[in-house]
Structure formats: structure tokens, C-alpha cells
Design brief:
The chain is mainly β. 3% of the residues lie in helices and 47% in strands. The mean pLDDT is 94. InterPro entries: Cupin_2, GPI/OXD, RmlC-like_jellyroll, RmlC_Cupin_sf.
């Protein structure tokens, strides 16, 4: 169920950590701006923290664009058939139709922002 859209100010501590489907090994996220938290329709903004070996399984979106912004730590990002180390200050744009996954392959937590639009694949 989508909440009514409303301009708001939220503190990151207000939103509980969740482990979404397809995420494993303490791969946790907070949906800070999403249909279920703010009623947003064109944007999903999350912060994620994956402990070592935490990952999201390889997946693809038909129409969604995504941006990953690595805030801390390092991991291994798979984009289509290429794997690349990503670390603090890297920004990754993922176009629709691109297979992708990320795993924390580092020694500490991997923390990053994920922005997705539109919300639902058609």
C-alpha cells in the first residue's frame, strides 16, 4: 500500500534496517524515500550496509535506472559479465536491461546509497 505523498524531513534513525528479498549475509537497507515511507512515486532512495560477504543476487531491471554511490568500504560489483572493485567515492550508473550485483569483498562494512527510478518495472 502506498502512503499519501507528502513533503517531509526524516532522520535515518527513524527507518528500521531491512533485509530485502534477494539480499543475503547481513545485506541490510533503510528505505528512506520510497512509496511505503513517503509515498514517493518516481524515486526510491536507500542507504545500504553490507557486512563482509553480504551481497545482492545478480538481477536486472526492465525500465529502472539506478545509481549506486559508495560511501565507505569496498566490494565487487558485477555489471553484465564484468567484475570490478568499487570503493569509497565511486558512483555507478546502471541502465535498464543491465544485469548487476554487488558483494562486500572487503574487510569492513560496505556502505552505499542506491537511488532508483521509476519505482516499478513494467
Amino acid at each position: 500500500m502506498t502512503k499519501e505523498r507528502k513533503t517531509c524531513v526524516r532522520n535515518i534513525a527513524e527507518e528500521p534496517w531491512q533485509q530485502y528479498p534477494g539480499h543475503f549475509g547481513s545485506a541490510l537497507s533503510k528505505a528512506l524515500v520510497a512509496p511505503e515511507t513517503t509515498g514517493s512515486q518516481l524515486m526510491d532512495y536507500r542507504i545500504s550496509t553490507y557486512q563482509p560477504m553480504g551481497y545482492v543476487e545478480r538481477h536486472v531491471h526492465k525500465v529502472q535506472e539506478q545509481v549506486y554511490h559508495i560511501l565507505d568500504g569496498e566490494g565487487l560489483m558485477e555489471i553484465d559479465d564484468e567484475k570490478r572493485v568499487v570503493r569509497k567515492n565511486d558512483v555507478i550508473f546502471i541502465a535498464p536491461g543491465t544485469w548487476h550485483s554487488i558483494v562486500n569483498s572487503g574487510l569492513g562494512d560496505l556502505t552505499f546509497i542506491v537511488v532508483t527510478t521509476p519505482i516499478k518495472d513494467e
